[in-house]
């Protein structure tokens, strides 16, 4: 301390004062480290002298009462501002600022702060559960898996005690562990079996499905909106039976009609529907499925391909045969959300169960191919939220502008149809009679006579289509017209009657060709040298195949399709049935008229000729 | 810089890069690039792709500068015009003299939208810069009328030779495709459409193989529906509930299926019994499995750095593929078949010739519902290396060979033949009886 003193005395004016104060002045210096290491450091460096000078007055004052000094804060602890004022350069200021920032505060949190922190923590937990429901559930399942070694028992217990398991008598059997996929954020079930508990076909709903792999994402936010917990579903490999004898929406088996699944992807699904139809779905992608608009959303699928009774079917966006160019996009914009094309390849009518149905009980056998264009209107989201019992004037105005009708164009191609007289009148689904039996007779006659005529013609002359082929190519081996690339075949043909395999040619496969030269431009010169248009003829091969083609168009308000799951429940089925009958009646009438007309013509011709002969005879 | 200008410049550059290696390929972007920020993809709208033989302009030589005739607006309009006419009701094909110079499948396609995502790390490892590709709305014409097979030419001469930089897409999606296909030798034109196509990967060197292993493809070929899809339950039907799920490629079967395909696609121009069928439809189902040769399932551990480098340069799982075999179970069902037999054939002896006529008669009668043909093809995966089509992978050769064998076996099968003769006898008797009854009715 003696060493320090001289330095101080250099600045002091009163020796006496200093000699008294030497002891006192030590106190703050030794005390400093307790308060702040920074301050201590500062004292030991070049700032020391500065402080002394600055705080000289304060020394003096505090000196007067030592007791007071001990209870108080260190007298010459410099404030941040003071330090800053005396610092030189940016770095130093930066150091001071950052050090102040890092000084630990000893003050404990008060109640307010703790409660704020807690509520923030709580809110974040809830937010996390809502936004990352899948991750949250994944984490629970993962921890259960780690603790118990397996989580399948836990999951089956949860599922079986849930609303679905307990109330609806559905049994869940989880065969494999449920493993969360962290990267893609979904839960993967392996080998899940879902079945209704009473395997009794008298129940309105019965199913027993084994799913090889089920991937789910959950969303609590959706659930809070009343749209169900499940957000997306990805299914792979389903095997089982589904029986829906009644509409589960209508009999309140499904209670939450607002349920909405935002994406469904299904691959390789095979089930037997109503113990009758063998349905395979190879690949299905639905962008959304609202239980309320189940049918509409199904037809709105990105793509569905599969088979019904082993004949293929698809649902896809209808393809226009126009090239995409700039001006086309305007033309394509329509009031429809989407125009979907449904196509079912020819399938046996008997397997489809048409002969057993009430409305077509007179059809015996044959094949049916269905093509349908389904024009789906835009269903507004506001519209869906609007409840039935709260009519709103604005809504009505809004509705009147928006197209709300679904239009379906059907084309039914019946092939090799045969018919029989049924025991009772054909009925609609509401038991209204469509036709009386005696009215039905002309239809049956038409269908059966068409069949017999076709087959007798085939046996006599072969196919009308084939006969033309035979006459031209079977023996004479006529070469197809001016097709340069078929020269190898023609060379043999030109030689005359050669009995080689080339005799059998596929006229329909190699149609005749006409070549047009390129038209001239406005200037009159054909600048495009050597350009030509080739036209193919006779490529229409569906000339006569014993087909009856019936078409119809059905328009239905989308709201009428609400809460309906089964096609039979809607009016569409009856409408299509009636339209088909109308169309068929028209065809039959035309046919009868033509037949009568032909017969009259024939009869008059024979009668007249006989008269003539008679007359001639009488003359002679 | 003006954004429109910049977009056009980028479009031009991208177009040039694509067409760099192939002078006959034209790529035109009508609408330049609109980045789709949400999906992290680059979108090209209204793309024209055309592959036709290009005639160099006379002016090109004079200026001394190589004129890129791949970007003229005129040719774009022409391509669109050709595609439009080919897709029209009349199916008109425009031909130019110069087109005969190109002995390859020529096409004019308009694409509504192309979405691309890029990956630089892929590019550095020599797998091409494109990571994922999505194509929506394709219309146009594929013109194969100029394809001529030289004599003794092997399709395998045109296999892809693998080199670093060949694209390897991690995802390929195609929606709403419709084009008219004009086959060589004057075969009738028909429409091919693909509703959707999803491939988990598409590699240039394994193009055809990856196509066969699609997640899902569905569409129509000459108005007959076809699908390619995955089957996760191979023993469907045998076991009701198979509880074991193995996410193993061995158990997953890819099924290809075509229904009601007109038979002339298969047998037009083919000699022999199969070619005698003049009319009919074919249902085809092919189940494809990839099975390792050795069941040990050992994964080769790479220690040798030289080997490691070689593996790196080769396409990703070439080694893995080399040890695998592809088994294709093929079912073919002919129905509504009509056949004509030539008066004399070299294929059959006199006795057989006499016997085949009732068989053809039987086929032609509607009593024969269908002719089933089964066969199994085992192929080395090596055959698919670099292959583009069913021909150059030699799958078509194997297939037609097997189908022909099965068909011939069916026709000449003694046991079946006797059964058939019996049936025909019964059938003709039935016919006679009916005739008699009918005439009786007429008399009465």
Write a concise keyword list for the protein shown above.
heterodimer, A: alpha+beta, 13-stranded mixed beta sheet, 22 helices, elongated, disordered N terminus, B: 444 residues, 2 domains, twelve-stranded mixed beta sheet, two-stranded antiparallel sheet
Quick recap:
The complex is a heterodimer of chains A (620) and B (444). Chain A is 41% helix and 24% strand.
Describe the structure.
The complex is a heterodimer of chains A (620) and B (444). Chain A has 620 residues and is an alpha+beta fold. Among the domains of chain A are: 5-70, no CATH class; 338-386 and 400-593, no CATH class. Helices cover 41% and strands 24% of the residues of chain A. Chain A contains 22 helices and 17 strands. In chain A, the strands form 3 sheets. In chain A, strands 1, 2, 3, 4, 5, 7, 8, 10, 11, 12, 13, 14 and 17 form a 13-stranded mixed beta sheet that branches. A two-stranded antiparallel sheet of chain A has the order 6-9. Chain A has a two-stranded antiparallel ribbon with strand order 15-16. In chain A, helix 2 packs across helix 3 and helix 9 (111-131) crosses helix 10. Chain B has 444 residues and is an alpha+beta fold. Chain B is 29% helix and 33% strand. Chain B contains 11 helices and 15 strands. In chain B, the strands form 2 sheets. A 12-stranded mixed beta sheet of chain B has the order 1-2-4-5-7-8-10-11-12-13-14-15, with helices on both faces. A two-stranded antiparallel sheet of chain B has the order 6-9. Chain B is elongated, with a radius of gyration of 27 Å. At the A-B interface, strand 3, strand 4, strand 5, strand 7 and strand 8 of A face helix 3, strand 3, strand 4, strand 5 and strand 7 of B. Chain A: Keywords: Membrane, Mitochondrion, Mitochondrion inner membrane, Transit peptide, Transmembrane, Transmembrane helix.
